[in-house]
Automatic annotation (TrEMBL):
Its EC number is 2.4.2.10, 4.1.1.23. The chain holds residues 217 to 474 of 474 of the full protein. This is Uridine 5'-monophosphate synthase. The active site is at D92 (for ompdecase activity), K94 (for ompdecase activity), D97 (for ompdecase activity). Coiled coil: none annotated. It comes from Helobdella robusta. Residues 33-244 form the Orotidine 5'-phosphate decarboxylase domain. Keywords: Decarboxylase, Glycosyltransferase, Lyase, Multifunctional enzyme, Pyrimidine biosynthesis, Transferase. In the N-terminal section; belongs to the purine/pyrimidine phosphoribosyltransferase family. GO terms for molecular function: orotate phosphoribosyltransferase activity; orotidine-5'-phosphate decarboxylase activity.
Length: 258
């Protein structure tokens, strides 16, 4: 039973959303559980990272609102590269407002996130209305609920995380998993994405706290490791991505369920 939930094709079959099924399949096909957090501030750099690191990742995570020269061609190009290298796009917008507002933030404005993002995320803080309205706005994207954060002194409590799980279970046709620093659900169809991963640093001096790839995947039960500056600021980002991908995936295969 333990190994069964580590079996990616088994998990793909259990997926309740098209996007989580796709992610499990990509993880299996490319043998990677690395998500690149491409936190750069111009389109050229973003597309260059996507093109060069694309072969080693299953997910590329963006913060499109930090891109100075963003326009719809940024997304079109990103979609083409995602298709070419077989990864999915995750916009880390962290919706956290009333349903009426988030549905506009999701579909409208400059970024029109719903037109290109496979994965989005939301804080469960406002209550289930946030999930309902995001889903009504566009159910083709899959949503991750932020059940835990990696930052020092964050206000999330075990009770909050438990309530997050309940909200996810009640909306599992749209919620595909969690942003978390530990395994929140033992249900194999939910994905756990864990940020705060670095091989070299313990923190960034701005609240971020890091664990190593093997710690998050083997000890904390992460499915997917999110790595930003550990790759983007490395002397050789492609070489660094390969190391994170290798450590992450060997940890995933070796891990027993926690
Ligand atoms: P880095 O590996 O450079 O520290 O970047 C981490 C990324 O993950 C950032 O894009 C940040 O917004 C995101 N993140 C995080 O670090 N901690 C969380 O709890 C949730 C996040 O989305």
């Amino acid at each position: 039973h333990c190994m069964k939930t580590r079996d990616l094709m088994e998990r793909a079959k259990l997926a309740k959303h098209e996007v989580s099924r796709k992610i499990f399949e990509v993880m299996y096909q490319k043998q990677t559980n690395l998500c690149l957090s491409a936190d750069v501030t111009n389109s050229k750099e973003l597309l260059h990272l996507a093109e060069s690191i694309g072969p080693y990742i299953c997910v590329l995570k963006t913060h499109v609102d930090i891109i100075e020269d963003f326009d719809q061609s940024t997304c079109r190009n990103l979609l083409n590269i995602a298709h070419k290298h077989n990864f999915v796009l995750f916009e880390d917008r962290k919706f956290a407002d009333i349903g009426h507002t988030v549905s506009k933030q999701f579909t409208g404005g400059m970024f029109r996130i719903s037109e290109w993002a496979d994965v989005i995320n939301a804080h469960p803080l406002p209550g289930p209305g946030i999930i309902k309205e995001l889903k009504n706005a566009n159910k083709r994207s899959g949503c991750l609920l932020i059940g835990e954060m990696s930052t020092n002194g964050n206000l999330i409590t075990p009770a909050y995380t438990k309530a997050t799980l309940k909200m996810a279970e009640e909306n599992d046709d749209f919620v595909i998993g969690f942003i978390s620093t530990s395994r929140i659900s033992h249900d194999p169809h939910f994905l756990h994405f864990t940020p705060g991963v670095s091989l070299d640093c313990k923190g960034d001096g701005k609240g971020q706290q890091y664990l190593t790839p093997s710690e998050v995947v083997s000890k904390r039960g992460a499915d997917i490791l999110i790595v930003g500056r550990g790759i983007t600021l490395a002397h050789d980002p492609v070489a660094a991505a390969k190391v994170y991908a290798q450590e992450g995936f060997s940890g995933y295969l070796a891990a027993v369920d926690v």
